[in-house]
Amino acid sequence: MRFFKPGTMNWKYIIGEVLLIFIGINLAIWFNDWNASNKTMANKKIAVTKIKEEIQNNLNELQTSRNLNLKIPKAISEYAGFPKNKEGDIEVSSKVMQSFQKEYPDFYVILDSMPIGEDLVLYNGDTQIQLELTALTEIAWETSRNMGIANEFGYECLYDLENMYNIQRLVKKELNKAAEALQSEEIDRLLRVLGFLEQLEEQLETDYKAMLAKIDFCL
């Protein structure tokens, strides 16, 4: 028969309990980290998807408005080159006027017309400039930043996104300037703003396309 000293079995039991507790705590920490990591990754995927959709929508908006706004300086230039009488009425052929109105719809509204010679018509009308203001948004980007999800992106991805949205803000700022110039009928100022805006929009369109091609790598 074997005899054990008092307390021997208790120490083994205590050490076993401590080990079990230690293992349990580490498993809980690992599980929490794993769960948090999965949640972070899921949020990043949602953020990337939403930002990607936002960029695509902004690109579509930009291309539509840009194509229309690029016609404004051309329409003004062509209109200025038309021969006019002392009252400012246009003296061109009907063919020329039809071609002009087809290229620049709604720019010149004919109020009255009168033939004044062989295939020559006197047109009385008003000009109107319709500036397209784009609805460029950054809701998805700002939401990702405010929730801290954007902090999980790599440095290069963050840099490119912030740079792209900064140019987008500049575009919106210049569009507001163009609208102010148009409202105050400052045509020369309007043309200057549109000239600078064209450069910004070209850069923004390039950045949109580049970001769409690589944003999935932000994960």
Features:
219 residues, 67% helix, 10% strand, rod-shaped
How is this structure best described in words?
It is a single chain. Helix 1 (8-69) runs antiparallel to helix 4 (139-146), helix 1 runs antiparallel to helix 6 (187-214) and helix 5 (155-183) packs antiparallel against helix 6 (187-214). The radius of gyration is 33 Å and the shape is rod-shaped. The mean pLDDT is 87. A hairpin with a 2-residue loop joins strand 2 and strand 3 (120-127). By secondary structure, the protein is mainly alpha-helical. 67% of the residues lie in helices and 10% in strands. A 3-stranded antiparallel sheet has the order 1-3-2. The protein contains 6 helices and 3 strands.
Number of strands: 3
As a whole number of angstroms, the C-alpha radius of gyration is: 33 Å
Q: Tell me the number of helical segments per DSSP (H or I, 4 or more residues long).
A: 6
H-E order: HHEHEEHHH
The description of the largest β-sheet is: 3 strands, antiparallel
User: How big a fraction of the residues is strand?
Assistant: 5-15%
Reading side by side through the largest sheet, how are the strands ordered? 1-3-2
From the spread of the alpha carbons, the general shape counts as rod-shaped
- Which structural class should the secondary elements be placed in? mainly alpha
Q: What are the segments in which pLDDT stays under 50 over at least 5 consecutive residues?
A: none
